[in-house]
């Protein structure tokens, strides 16, 4: 009986039927029953309403006690802020963040926080909200990347500007030995980042001394040290290779990531998607490919 009510409630939250949500919810005997998650995805009724942007239902469920004792998290440990960021639901995001500020610092199985999710999807207003609530600018995910890495990789200029203005550390390298600027989607994005740093008064050369505290053990690998330019060199790099188009990157990734060169690809790129492969890694990657083919 409870399972049937939960299924009906989930459907009503998906459809945005507030009247039906209130009617079904009134039949639950406890908030634990109200918050029961869908087994395969881990989605709760509140998460489903948030995903579809049904703000009135989100507010109604919160009033009924949803998430009052435990924050909703799906099977990947995403919370409602991450889901709202992915689906562009700003009103839901703001309402939930202000009601449950403890959710701001949570991370999922990939190590993403709501700030990383918002930066990745270019949600500048959400980034502002999170920073106002004390989100960690320099939190690193499981691959060692920060919110600025993700925003730079997707070329979200407004978000990049905001993160730099608020003090995102420019010298942090991820597990592959790459800074956020190395991950810039294009030369134009890289140049824009330099302009932002100059406008904010950031001196990358003088801040390089702090880099050692952020470098991971992986970044000490010899190939990473060979490939990764110093912050000063990045600011002056005149011969940075032009990035390949998204289509070319996708084609190259598809043909190579599952082949015999995949270990080399993973070592050089330190990435799990073509969008996150640093543009200036391609010249070195091609050099290694040619060398591999000669043997």
TrEMBL record:
Residues 208-222 have a biased composition (Low complexity). InterPro entries: Ankyrin_rpt (IPR002110), Ankyrin_rpt-contain_sf (IPR036770). It comes from the Eukaryota. Pfam families: Ank_2, Ank_5. Residues 223-233, 242-257 have a biased composition (Polar residues). Residues 208-257 are annotated as: Disordered. GO terms for molecular function: ubiquitin-protein transferase activity. Gene3D superfamilies: Ankyrin repeat-containing domain. Keywords: ANK repeat, Repeat. GO terms for biological process: protein K6-linked ubiquitination. ANK repeats lie at residues 41-73, 110-142, 143-175. This is Ankyrin. The lineage of its organism: Eukaryota, Fungi, Fungi incertae sedis, Mucoromycota, Mortierellomycotina.
